[in-house]
Request: fold
Amino acid sequence: MRIKRLKLSGFKSFVEPAELRIEPGLTGVVGPNGCGKSNLLEAIRWVMGESSPKSMRGGGMEDVIFAGTESRPPRAFAEVVLSAETDARDDLEVVRRIERGAGSAYRVNGRDVRAKDVSLIFADAATGAHSPALVSQGRIAAVIAAKPAERRQMLEEAAGIAGLHARRKDAEQK
Ligand code: ATP
Ligand code: MG
Reply:
């Protein structure tokens, strides 16, 4: 899977709609402290289905919505659109939107889907919100300190079999 485009609106410090094209090859994001570099990586994890507000550096999931500043009012919603190329289908567009008091809603290629469906798409492509492909600040120390079971989970995600476990659990419950 290759991420081609990212659109953010009302997400953390990205208050005005912003569009980023990610060209093939290596992309670097540079800027002064606090300009939003980590927020960008968090936006990618978030649209892939991240469910832990703590790992988004927030107390609740609504903390990803632009909170306002002295000169700008807060936003009512946050939205991230990720466009990617995959082996399975040519174009994939995933939208996650959160509104105050209404929770998150997801769309894949224009169709309403569940959070779980989005997680499965990325797990099958051996990527996703918890994939070792996304290394956030402090994560290296966490890998070193991880328990064997947690490390096994990281390996399974890297091997692309995380989605199979989720489906087995689902089948066992039926
Ligand atoms: P560093 O170089 O220090 O790692 P960074 O470029 O990674 O910095 P981020 O951590 O991505 O910076 O951005 C932090 C900024 O985002 C802070 O100024 C913070 O106030 C702002 N921010 C985070 N959440 C929100 C929100 N919900 N509403 C408004 N601003 C927010
Ligand atoms: Mg940072």
